């Protein structure tokens, strides 16, 4: 068989497979509609139907990746199935998700990675506004950054948990790649100002010191805002990601300029619904301890004794008094697990205050 004949046969096979894929996706979408009807019909008076189940979505993605035999890698397969689930869920009820805007930020990218493109995303001007939108019921969920692998904790997010009674429903880990972007009118040999968010400037500090040591660095509210400004200035550049580059029509003068190649940001999904155990969960808590010698040892000892893996611990000033602090702790396990439940009961007895922020599925990728 000639090469031309082989190509023709392969294209015929691809067309046939595409038709089967479409038929199966449509069948899945009809099942999603049936799920919505069953849930609605089984409601008791005063109950609200819950269409989005984080634990179910996490299980589906993990199951699909376990079945995956290639040639597409797990990340790509998970992305494809996330979009299918997002579109099917939109047939039941389109989710509304608030995030730290404007459009084109890494928070926006985290929304799309976790929920898919079929959600109705709502950009907010500040992290606290995201919390308020969720608390008021104006949106179903919010997405907020909580820590970066290079620069550490996002304090505005931690402080917002002290002020709002919301539940952490999930987490997203996003690999952060920064690019130096310029506009159509930028004179690249005359750049005298570089815009970006303060965190991004910090994450690219060494690169900037080596390549643009004498250029002014201007911190703005977001990387997307930086990209907007560059559109109308001939002597400036912006540090931002792929979404901002595409959204605002900018060119990458230099790619992947972050100081650490593994630079990642972790985001939290905040909402009002508790998430049942999945068997692969994390829990976040806030603890306020009495100010006395050995306090930190008392706090950590129950976790060590019971073999519970702590994944993060941060301190923030308490709102209750001068030189008093609260501890933010993430650990492996669900607060309904018997072992974890026992540890939390012990901490509650020894602490001034203990608040479970939520238990949620670990980030899939």
From TrEMBL:
Q: Reaction catalysed?
A: prephenate + H(+) = 3-phenylpyruvate + CO2 + H2O; chorismate = prephenate
What are this entry's molecular-function GO terms?
A: chorismate mutase activity; prephenate dehydratase activity
Identify the keywords attached in UniProt to this record, alphabetized. Answer: Amino-acid biosynthesis, Aromatic amino acid biosynthesis, Cytoplasm, Isomerase, Lyase, Multifunctional enzyme, Phenylalanine biosynthesis
Got a GO cellular component term for this one? Answer: cytoplasm
Its subcellular locations are:
Cytoplasm
What function is annotated for this protein? Answer: Catalyzes the Claisen rearrangement of chorismate to prephenate and the decarboxylation/dehydration of prephenate to phenylpyruvate.
What name does this protein carry?
Bifunctional chorismate mutase/prephenate dehydratase
Give the organism, scientific name.
Pseudomonas flexibilis
